[in-house]
Amino acid sequence: MKSLKKRAVIGVVFCFTVTVFFGKTICYSEKEPELLSKAGIVMEASTGTIIYEKDSHEILPPASITKVMTLLLIYEAIEAGSITMDTVVTTSEHAANMGGSQVYLEAGEQQTVETLMKCICISSANDACVAMAEHLAGTEGAFVDRMNEKAKALGMNDTSFVNCCGLDADGHVSSAYDVALMSRELMNRFPEITQFTTTWMDSMTHVTKNGSTEFGLSNTNKLLRQYEGITGLKTGSTSKALYCLSATASRNDIDMIAVILGGPDTKTRFREASELLSYGFSKCKIYTDEHETMEIIKVPVDKSLKKEVELVPKEIFRYVSIGNEDFSQITEEVVLYESIVAPVEAGEELGMIVYQLNGKEIGKIPLVSKEEIVKSGYADYIKELLTLLT
C-alpha cells in the first residue's frame, strides 16, 4: 500500500493578541498558567493527555462538580433503556428539602427526566439531582454507591462520594485529576449533553396542587458568554470547596477539559479556567487521515466462490500532538490477518493500519470487510463448474 497522499493537519496558531468574535474571547497562549486556585489541570479529551497540572491529585471537596458523575449515570441509564427523556419522575420529601442551589420542586411534584436534566445542567439544582438519584436507585444512598463504583472503574482513586449533588459533607472529596477523568468520560460518551450545558437561559413549569407556575433557569457557567468554543460543563461552590469549575471547549476538532478546584472567588475560577483552556489549545495540533486517496485493498478468501474481499478503514485516524512533532514523518503499515475463511460478515475486522512516527507507534485503526462473503458448499462448486462448461 502506498503512503497516503493527503493528510489533514490542523495546527494551532500561537498568538498573544486577543480577537473578539461575537462577543467571545478567542485567544491562545504559550505562557504556562500560574494559578491562584488550590488545584487545576488541563487535559486533551480524545487521548486524556495532561498538558498542565497544579496539585491535580490534592484531595479537595468538589462542590457541585459532583453532578458530573450523577449526569454520567443518568445517561448510562438512558443508554441501557432503563429510562427515557420522557420518563416521569416523582419528587420525594427528601429531594424537595435538599436546600442549596435548587429549582424548588415540591414533594409529590412530577417532572420528566428531560426537565430534571435541564435543571441539573443549567441551574445546578440539588433537588432535581436527588430526585433523579432516587428514581434510578431507590434511595440517594444506593445511588451514591453506584457513583463510587463508577469512580473506581474510571480510576478515580482520589474520590469518595457521600451525596449525589455536592453539598459539603465529611468525606465527600475528589481531585482536579479525577474531575477531569469523569468529565472526559461524560463528554466523550454522551456529547449530546451539550444541548443542556450550552443553554444560557431556559425555563421549566411547576405543576402542583396549587396550579402551574413558570420558573426561570439561568446557566451558572459564565464562560458560555466569555469563551469561544465552550461546550460545558459544570460549576460548583460551597463554603468548604470555595469556587470550582469543570470547563470543556472545542476548537479546530480539538476538545479540551480544564478543571479548577478551590478558586478564591468566582471571577478567578472563570479566568483561570480560560487560561488553562487557551494554554491547552496552544500546545495541541492534530493529524487526521481520512483515507481519501488510499489504494483499494483486496485479500484472498478461502471456501467461497468469491475469491477476494475488499477491505476498508473502519474509521478516520486522528492523532493529537502536544509537542513540535513533524507530521510528514508519519508512516502507515497495513497488517492483514492470516487465513481469511468464509463466511465473512460485512464490517468484520480482518486487518489494521498501524501508524508510526519516528519509529514509535502512535495508533492504529481496523480494516474491515466492505461486504458479506458467503461460504460456498459442494453444490455451489458443481453449479459453477456446469456454468463454465456451458
Question: What do these coordinates show?
Answer:
The protein is of the alpha+beta class and 390 residues long. It has nine helices and 19 strands. It has helices at residues 67-80, 93-96, 113-123, 126-137, 140-153, 176-189, 194-197, 266-283, 378-389, and strands spanning 8-11, 19-21, 24-26, 39-44, 50-54, 88-90, 110-112, 201-208, 211-218, 230-238, 242-251, 254-263, 285-289, 297-300, 308-313, 317-321, 330-336, 349-357, 360-369. Helix 1 (67-80) runs parallel beside helix 6 (176-189). It is globular. The two termini are 39 Å apart.
Structural features:
single chain, alpha+beta, five-stranded antiparallel beta sheet
Topology readout:
Elements: E1 8-11, E2 19-21, E3 24-26, E4 39-44, E5 50-54, H1 67-80, E6 88-90, H2 93-96, E7 110-112, H3 113-123, H4 126-137, H5 140-153, H6 176-189, H7 194-197, E8 201-208, E9 211-218, E10 230-238, E11 242-251, E12 254-263, H8 266-283, E13 285-289, E14 297-300, E15 308-313, E16 317-321, E17 330-336, E18 349-357, E19 360-369, H9 378-389
Antiparallel strand pairs: 1-13, 2-3, 4-5, 4-12, 6-7, 8-9, 10-11, 11-12, 13-16, 14-15, 15-19, 17-18, 18-19
Helix pairs in contact: 1-4, 1-6, 3-4, 4-5
